[in-house]
Amino acid sequence: MKKTSKTLTVGLMAQAAGINVEAIRFYQRKGLMPLPERAYGRIRRYTDADLDRVRFIKASQRLGFSLAEVAELLKLDDGMHCEEAREIAEHKLLDVREKLADLQRIERALDQLVAQCGSAHNAVKCPLISALHESSEYLTKSL
What we know:
By secondary structure, the chain is mainly alpha-helical. About 65% of the residues lie in helices and about 0% in strands.
């Protein structure tokens, strides 16, 4: 995206970052974004650095980082803490791999249930519905 050459209102910054104003205010309440000073009787103005920070936050979230993790990454954003940032990313990668494994187990269980539904013509009970009723037994074995 193109950078601005002047300061922005919160609305224009939100628009430039592709988010809404409430997201910026939320980031400020969480301590991820500084609250710009406001000259007496004037509105707050945001800089290119503020816009870059919002974009950093959004890019981090798209990679699955929580806001707490984003806050940690922001603290390391001086170019001198690559190893610490790498550790955070490695931790996130492990989380993603665990979630993928869980999703694959869920996929296998659903695949079996759907196949049972397809083969249960004229059955009194639907195998899928029955399995969900008995979820503590069936799904724990499948997962």
